[in-house]
Write a structure and sequence with these properties.
GO terms for molecular function: aspartic-type endopeptidase activity. It comes from Collimonas pratensis. InterPro entries: Prepilin_IV_endopep_pep. The protein has about 200 residues and is an all-alpha fold. About 80% of the residues lie in helices and about 0% in strands. Helix 1 (about 5-45) packs antiparallel against helix 8 (about 175-190), helix 4 packs parallel to helix 8 (about 175-190) and helix 5 runs antiparallel to helix 8 (about 175-190). The protein is elongated, with a radius of gyration of 21 Å. The relative contact order is 0.13.
Amino acid sequence: MPVKGQVLSSYFQRLAGQNEYVLDMNYLLLLFLLFCTAIFLYDYLFRRVPNRLLVMAIAVQLGWLAGSGNGLNGVTWIGAFSGLTVGLLFFLPLYTLRAMAAGDVKFFAVLGLLLGPGALLPVFLIGSLFAGVHAVATHILRMGLVPGLQAVATRLVRWPLCRRVLERRGSRSGIPYAAYLAVAGAWAGMQSAGVILGIN
């Protein structure tokens, strides 16, 4: 084969390999977004973070790391485990002070494993902002400061679907912090993948 043909063949092989890597990363990002959506729905509706979802996310990330050396958005082994460690160390004191639920701590640590340590601060800040808005809205609703809002909430609670959700939730209450971390995590994952713009 002439030199020119070898160069072109080598170029197209590299291009095909890059496209395959991009497709793999897109599939992994899609799985991550589905994971964040499931966590959001579970925590927002039922105030629960299912362990099986966390274990599945860990297994997929570790499998990807073992197979290719890189996980979601190119996170390496070192990035994944340092993210997990930072996530645990950051939230564990809050859990011991009963300022954070166990599910929130575990989910934040798993986000560290998936996204790496660099994503945790923005995820924490954005998730906390959403949780703060939720807390203010809940306070306004409980105090009856906006009568129209109270009437809407009363109507919603009468819906059969809403009643079923509240029955399944049981005595669990509080701010669905993991749900808001999931929204922030989805944003961080898409921003890191270049799907959406970040905050500069």
